[in-house]
Specification:
The chain is 41% helix and 15% strand. The chain has one domain: HAD superfamily/HAD-like (Rossmann fold, 3-Layer(aba) Sandwich), CATH 3.40.50.1000. Strand 1 and strand 2 form a beta hairpin. The protein is globular. The strands form three sheets. It has a five-stranded parallel beta sheet, with helices on both faces. About 10% of the residues have low confidence. With 254 residues, it is an alpha/beta fold.
Length: 254
């Protein structure tokens, strides 16, 4: 999640699609200009946050911490998307040599909703590091099941995340503690020295970094059947038979 936008404006932008202005848009009597101006207003940030919480089935534990519900619309949507992905993977077994799947981490392999809500959907890199160090994030259960099923059926598993290289060891420890199988490879965004397969070096944007890394994985002989992520930038750039987009209305990463 390193580098994720921290302002609440991006939260409103992510969820504002299809939003309507509340009643009263006619404003001052008979003023077409006032009506047009109000119709262009962005979504109300407070309402957007409430809508996001409702989508995740937000509830508080005894300590006042936020959690998502496994009966929420988010959980239902995630299960549907991952079930479709698993069916496709099953269909490709025996057709594709050296099959592999690539998983993003934040809001793909793990769910950060509770932490995001606890922090009012604002990103703080220091707090994020603390959350990684403390193993705060929880496994995304359908993705966890997919990863284990895939490895049990001879599919190689790779993690590819925007978290930086210094967050790698603890991130992998957390994923293992959550039940994820050992990956064939795990890639974290370089901060000191970039590998040769990334010509953009340390200045790669998300698409360049992730597509370039997938190209490298396939150059080793693996064939990526599924590329699973919560951002479109996780999926763009090719080098996967099927990109799988998981729901995430909390933030947007270009």
């Amino acid at each position: 999640m390193s580098g994720k936008w921290s302002s609440l404006v991006k939260l409103a932008a992510a969820a504002a699609i299809g939003a309507t202005v509340a009643s009263g848009a006619t404003a001052l009597a008979g003023s077409d200009d006032a009506t047009a101006a109000r119709a262009k207003e962005p979504a109300n940030i407070g309402q957007v946050k409430n809508d996001v919480k409702a989508y995740y089935g937000d509830y508080l534990d005894a300590a006042g911490k936020h959690h998502y519900s496994e009966t929420s619309q988010f959980a239902k949507d995630s299960n549907r998307v991952v079930s479709d992905a698993k069916r496709y993977l099953q269909q490709q077994l025996g057709k594709v040599e050296n099959p592999a799947i690539v998983l993003d981490v934040d809001d793909t392999s793990e769910i950060t909703f509770g932490w995001e809500a606890d922090n009012d959907f604002g990103f703080d890199p220091v707090k994020q590091q603390q959350a990684i160090d403390n193993g705060t994030f929880v496994a995304n259960k359908p993705v966890l099941e997919l990863a284990n099923w895939a490895v049990q059926h001879g599919v190689k598993l790779y993690f590819l995340t925007g978290r930086n290289e210094f967050q790698g060891p603890q991130s992998l420890k957390n994923l293992a503690n959550e039940g994820y199988p050992a990956p064939a490879g795990a890639f974290f965004k370089p901060k000191t020295t970039a590998p040769d397969y990334l010509p953009c070096g340390l200045t790669c944007n998300t698409v360049q970094y992730k597509s370039g890394t997938r190209a490298h994985i396939e150059a080793t002989g693996a064939k990526i059947v599924l590329n699973v992520g919560d951002q479109f930038s996780d999926l763009e750039g090719g080098y996967a038979l099927r990109p799988i987009k998981l729901p995430n209305p909390m933030y947007y990463l270009p």
